[in-house]
Write a structure and sequence with these properties.
- This protein is α+β, with helices and mostly antiparallel strands and 230 residues long.
- The protein folds into two domains: 38-113, Serine Threonine Protein Phosphatase 5, Tetratricopeptide repeat (Alpha Horseshoe), CATH 1.25.40; 122-229, L,D-transpeptidase catalytic domain-like, CATH 2.40.440.10.
- It is 23% helix and 20% strand.
- It contains seven helices and ten strands.
- Strands 5-4-3-10-6-7-8-9 form an eight-stranded mixed beta sheet, with helices on both faces.
- A hairpin with a 5-residue loop joins strand 7 (182-185) and strand 8 (191-194).
- The protein is globular, with a radius of gyration of 19 Å.
- The protein starts with a helix and ends with a strand.
């Protein structure tokens, strides 16, 4: 490791892997590159606060860069080599997992969480137009239920997420309401939980589930499971 660090250029140099200030396709900036030092990630840690989007941060590690660029093979190599997964950036206190979540690299998030089922084996699919949720195992939907997503002005985020943590008894610090069987999605300020499920979008952005569905998912679906919202 010492040899690697000696070979890296000073902070004020241009990364040899970059082209005109942008990472070359398929390349990863070294830890001490000027761009790496001020990499612009904005995800806060896994809390109930809404994400801030600062202009820059410091103390960004190679593990965070690999997570943010979706370099899963390099990410595994760094972890196998003993990279610190819990190290935080200086200003926004972001971990590598936060960076993976902010940049939408769910495979990186799975690795940093210690694993998760392959999507072809197990995943959850949320349909916003249908206001429905499906549990898919081995490519076959095996369970369906109604759900209620974000109403006008509070649209539920679309995309691919992973369950990053679960809380049996959770209380929102934003809306000050109980959210039983809470399953946070990709360290963000929303997730799935038990709640009132009318036949239309009614939440502040979370995915409300019938209590029996929330209880089932909470007990049977592991952290790291992919959740698609479309």
């Amino acid at each position: 490791m010492a040899g690697i660090r000696r070979s890296l250029k000073p902070w004020n140099s241009v990364c040899p892997y970059c082209r005109d200030g942008q990472p070359a396709r398929g390349a990863l900036c070294p830890e001490r590159c000027k761009r790496a030092k001020t990499m612009k990630f904005g995800c806060s840690s896994a809390s109930t606060r809404r994400r801030r989007r600062p202009r820059g941060d410091r103390n960004v590690t190679m593990l965070m860069l690999a997570a943010g660029l979706g370099q899963v093979d390099y990410l595994r190599t760094l972890i196998d080599g003993g990279a610190n997964r819990t190290r935080l950036t200086t200003r926004n206190k972001m971990s590598a997992l936060d960076v993976a979540a902010e940049t939408g690299h769910w495979r990186s998030a799975q690795i940093l969480l210690g694993g998760g089922p392959a999507p072809e084996n197990l995943r959850i699919e949320i349909s916003l137009p249908m206001q429905s949720v499906a549990l898919v195992r081995d490519g076959v939907p095996i369970y369906h239920a109604r759900c209620s997503t974000g109403r006008a002005g509070y649209s539920t985020k679309r995309g691919e997420f992973v369950i990053t943590n679960k809380e049996r008894k959770h209380r929102s610090t934003i809306y000050h309401v109980e959210m039983p069987y809470f399953m946070r999605l990709s360290c963000l300020d929303f997730g799935m939980h038990a709640g009132y499920v009318p036949n239309h979008p009614a939440s502040h952005g979370c995915i409300r589930l019938p209590e029996d569905t929330a209880r089932k998912f909470f007990s049977e679906i592991p952290v790291g499971t992919l959740v698609t919202v479309q």
